[in-house]
């Protein structure tokens, strides 16, 4: 390394796996630490949704292709290996092996100063042949990289806690969806989970280790828990009742993966290796990493705090009572746009879209005038019943109405909604304040399509809380076809009628006539 890098200047880093869970979160951490980052990706387009993409160099390539790996490593100081052929097929271990050898050889030939690898924590007293194929492959990759001739650090972690982590998502869905569980015996297995923020801290810190350090390090959080402990602790942090968990010995890893696939949206190809890896105790047997990458002042993040960060239930994380906050990643624990569709917990959506034969301004006036005495444009009796039910269980019901009959501002109460966000002429987002087993939003937009026509877009979102929240959504979803489709049609019709009436009135004034037409109050009453 040249003098300025030795003195603490930025390093040139290559990140493989930038489209994955850890890689996508590591890149901005390296950038914030002052390093230059290049990403190697088979499909660079997958990175375009990342806000940091414009600050990096992105090259197309594959870790199984020696030429593209060699080209990506040109001028690199530190190479991060964050890819794995996760799966259950017969060739995944061979693919892992071939990719690791190519990466090791190209790093040596390119003069890379350090390799950093994130692998899996394995039990110390279990022969490697008895481990799952998933864990055996991770151990083999570590050996290949450590033997490359390039100073290498292989970090070994168990369950990583953060929204988007496959292990965390499996824990999230199992706990939220099953208040009573008949579970595999591996729920009694001891595990040392670690917060994703600590994993990233170690990965960034390892970039500057001295050249003579070439070894594996166990990394974990401050607590050793069973999987059952983690489910109960997750429930407590998420505000769910204590779970009844009954372990049984008959569920093999294969049956466990089917069970996980039935209960959660985690694909079976991912669930099976995760379940197989939980057969054995995975705890740290040394903490030597702290000698080289010191702990922060408060120490490693506890399990409860890691879950709270993933759920945004701490003061220094954005709280997910705003859809706008919940949809924008703000920390390593948050979901990213490139995370799998099944990550981030359940979010149910009802979408409606209609082309409106009226101006965008006319449509916006109807949107901004919704609620209160103007009503909700669909099945008034159904809305009234929902308001009565809400008051019956201690909610606010529909009695609050509106502050102003025509104008809204952020923070206004609107029946049993609250105005969360408003972009005049374009967007109204309401957050539900009725009693619900979850969080709900209603979003109304006045847009234009590519041909310049006015388009009304309506979206209802519901983030369920526990099994009761799931049951609530599915119990009311049959009514959504009536309520929300009727609402969209009537709002569009109201905008068209208002514009037609305004046009007729203007024409009558221009000609000196007195032409009949509906007033806005007449239209609202319809």
List keywords for this structure.
526 residues, 19% strand, six-stranded antiparallel β-sheet, 19 strands, seven-stranded parallel β-sheet
Shape: globular
Largest sheet: 7 strands, parallel
Round the mean pLDDT to the nearest integer and report it.
Answer: 82
Helix content: 25-40%
- Widest sheet: strand order? 3-2-1-4-5-6-11
Strands, count: 19
Q: How far apart lie the N and C ends?
A: 76 Å
**Low-confidence runs:** 1-7, 314-329, 511-526
Q: How many alpha or pi helices? A: 17
Protein structure class: alpha/beta
Alpha-carbon Rg, integer: 28 Å
DSSP strand content? 15-25%
Describe the protein in words:
The chain has 526 residues and is an alpha/beta fold. It has 17 helices and 19 strands. The chain has helices at 3-6, 21-32, 66-72, 92-110, 133-146, 166-177, 196-205, 227-238, 253-263, 268-277, 289-292, 303-311, 323-326, 360-368, 380-392, 466-511, 520-525; strands at residues 12-16, 36-41, 57-60, 78-81, 114-120, 152-157, 160-161, 180-184, 190-191, 194-195, 215-218, 225-226, 244-248, 348-356, 413-414, 417-423, 427-432, 438-448, 454-464.
Task: Write the SSE topology.
Blueprint (H helix, E strand, L loop, with lengths): L2 H4 L5 E5 L4 H12 L3 E6 L15 E4 L5 H7 L5 E4 L10 H19 L3 E7 L12 H14 L5 E6 L2 E2 L4 H12 L2 E5 L5 E2 L2 E2 H10 L9 E4 L6 E2 H12 L5 E5 L4 H11 L4 H10 L11 H4 L10 H9 L11 H4 L21 E9 L3 H9 L11 H13 L20 E2 L2 E7 L3 E6 L5 E11 L5 E11 L1 H46 L8 H6 L1
Parallel strand pairs: 1-2, 1-4, 2-3, 4-5, 5-6, 6-11, 7-10, 8-13
Antiparallel strand pairs: 9-12, 14-19, 15-16, 16-17, 17-18, 18-19
Helix pairs in contact: 2-7, 4-5, 6-8, 8-12, 9-10, 14-16
